[in-house]
Amino acid sequence: MRFGVAIGNLGAFGDPAGVDACIEVAQAADQLGFDSVWTNDHIVVPTNIESRYPYNETGIFPASPGVHCYEPLVMMSALAAATENVQIGCSVLVIPYRHPAVTAKMLAAADRISGGRIVLGAGVGWMREEFDALGLPAEHFEHRGSVTNEYLRAMKEMWTNSGPSSFHGEYVEFENVGAYPKPAQEGGIPIVIGGNGINAWRRASRWGDGYHAAFQSIESLAYEIEGVRAACRRDRRDPDELEISMLSGIRLTEEAWPEDERPLLCGNPDELAADLLALGKVGLEHLIATPTGRADTQLQRVLDGIETMAAEILPAYQ
Predict the structure, then answer these.
(1) pLDDT computed for residue 69 by the predictor
(2) Computed from CA positions of residues 108, 113, 119, 121, in that sequence, does the dihedral angle turn out positive or negative?
(3) What is the pLDDT of residues 183-216, one digit of tens each?
(4) Using an 8 Å Cβ cutoff, are 63 and 8 in contact?
(5) H or E segment to which residue 116 belongs
(6) Among 265, 260, 261, which Cα is nearest to 249's?
(7) How far is CA 29 from CA 221, 267, 305, in A?
(8) Which domain holds residue 289?
């Protein structure tokens, strides 16, 4: 199993120290042997949100309009310049928010800066209010899956065509345009598809290099993975071509929990090792999390968690 660190791009480290703290966490992950670091994506956070947040039981988005949301593509470039070994991704970039030519260009530049270490986590989005605040057409939210599919195809065209690029779709088109420089990675930037359910499974099979889940239980992750693998079989694609990753949290603690009540990936190193074994058995290959340990500040808790994982968990997977 590979391990990545989510750097808390939603302002978990506060401001004005937030940018420096994100870079410090990324550099610590790089130096301690983690495989990747990840930003995330919100351009604005509306005051009133009626859309249901899909990644917790309450359906309520766990952030206020006052959080500091660093632009993920800019942050990825900063992390590219500040690190040497880790992959750098976004969990996940909401593809319909940005014109695909702009996204493709910025990611190609970041890939050049990093020497070929960028990976794109791609999602369709869930918050109608954010689409509205950006002035996007109503159809972009209603048909965000189709928009995402088309934008990904357009981006691949710009990354891989050795000559001028052309694309003609329902939502975007361009004809004979130069799109240089190309990404450092031959064949373009790897894409991992975020989301859940049949549409995400199909998108991963047809357009992705991986599938990216978020905050799933062991049972629900197993269900999602089997859905992805079934979609690959229908498309006559080898399911093993897709890396399975998941965004989660890890809390390192010696707290005692009643039997069967301990949250997943919360506990001492032995308990975490048991959880990782169970996740690996259902097919997880790349865990992306913000480990937290014991310290006085959020930044120090994350650094403590990273150091503890590097010392007590990562060696078993190297």
Answers:
(1) 84
(2) negative
(3) 999 999 999 999 999 999 999 999 999 999 999 9
(4) no
(5) none
(6) 265
(7) 25, 21, 11
(8) 2-317
**154: three-class secondary structure by DSSP:** helix
Q: Phi/psi of residue 255, each to 5°?
A: -60, 135
What is d(CA 274, CA 257) in angstroms, rounded to the nearest whole number? 15
**Paired tokens of 310:** 């590097």
**Residue 60, domain CATH:** 3.20.20.30
- Runs of H (alpha helix) within the chain: 18-32, 72-82, 100-114, 128-133, 138-142, 144-160, 198-207, 218-234, 269-282, 298-312
Number of neighbouring beta carbons within 10 Å of residue 31: 14
Q: Provide the b/e sequence for 67-84 (b: ≥16 CB within 10 Å).
A: bebbebbebbbbbbebbe
* Amino acid (1-letter code) at residue 175: E
Can you tell me which residue has the tokens 């509205």? 132
Under the phi-then-psi rule, with left for phi > 0, alpha for psi from -120 to 50, and beta for the rest, what region is 119?
A: beta
Q: Structurally, how many domains does the chain consist of? A: 1
Rounded Cα gap, residues 15 and 18, in angstroms: 5
Q: What is the DSSP string of 47-85?
A: S---SPPTTSSS---S--TTS----HHHHHHHHHHH-SS
Whole-number Å distance between alpha carbons of 318 and 315: 5
Over residues 281-313, the pLDDT tens digits come to: 999 999 999 888 887 778 888 999 999 999 999
Are 102 and 74 within 8 A, CB to CB?
A: no
- Phi/psi for 167 (5° steps) reads -155, 135
Report the C-alpha gap between 82 and 76 in whole angstroms. 10
CB atoms within 10 A of CB 223: 13
Cα(126)–Cα(130) distance, integer angstroms: 9
Amino acid at 145: G
In the block, tokens 């345009």 appear at: 177
What sign does the dihedral 246-156-153-76 (CA atoms) show? positive
CA 32/CA 30 separation, integer angstroms: 6
